[in-house]
Amino acid sequence: KQEVTQIPAALSVPEGENLVLNCSFTDSAIYNLQWFRQDPGKGLTSLLLIQSSQREQTSGRLNASLDKSSGRSTLYIAASQPGDSATYLCAVNGAGNNRKLIWGLGTSLAVNP
Amino acid sequence: EPEVTQTPSHQVTQMGQEVILRCVPISNHLYFYWYRQILGQKVEFLVSFYNNEISEKSEIFDDQFSVERPDGSNFTLKIRSTKLEDSAMYFCASRWREGNSHGELFFGEGSRLTVL
Questions:
Q1: How many Å apart are CA B12 and CA B90, to the nearest integer?
Q2: Across-strand partners of A4?
Q3: What pLDDT was estimated at residue B98?
Q4: Which residues have a Cβ under 8 Å from the Cβ of A17 and sit 6 or more positions away?
Q5: Sign of the CA dihedral A11, A15, A19, A23?
Q6: Strand partners of residue B91
Q7: Strand partners, B53
Q8: Helix locations, A26-79, DSSP H
Q9: Which residues, given as ranges, of chain B have pLDDT below 50?
Q10: Which residues in chain B are contacts of A97 at CB distance < 8 A?
Q11: Which residues on chain A are in Cβ contact (under 8 Å) with B109?
Q12: Is B48 on the interface with A (CB under 8 A)?
């Protein structure tokens, strides 16, 4: 059974820092992995999707990497801003036909001005 | 940009009442999902729906839950007799075929259900 873990659970950094959020999963037979952002009490905004055959994806200041064989993904945020404060969720898309997502609990990020 | 829309954004109901949560997926998407997130817990898969039938459901999705696509645009989740533990944020998601979107799921803003 696939399990997804995210470390750290919470992170507080000063504005301008580069930071790394970690996601690990137990079953390497995945189709893809998605990173999401969730603001308090709000919906799920897709940030990046990495296919199982890819090593990384970039969007603006965000870079996500995937090491499928070791069951790890990282989300790198460059030059963090207060507007980046949110919970970041990692979700693994299984290799089955239904493509259901298995989620981590998230990393709660606070970027202080 | 196309988006998944959900209504209501927040619903408060009494225990034992029926609730229907509504979703309008992105118009050319073929696969539809409901997830839920109890406060402070992980997002959990409830059900997937394709070609007018359930393709997979989780253990959570018992006989109290049902889904329907009554017309070409809406996708609904019904809870027949709500329990206190059904209080959660419910998310609808949809996706296109594999080759066009690599299986990426698009989510709505969620419907917060509070059962008293």
A1: 13
A2: A25
A3: 60
A4: A79, A80, A111
A5: positive
A6: B35
A7: B50
A8: none
A9: 100
A10: 55
A11: 42-43
A12: yes
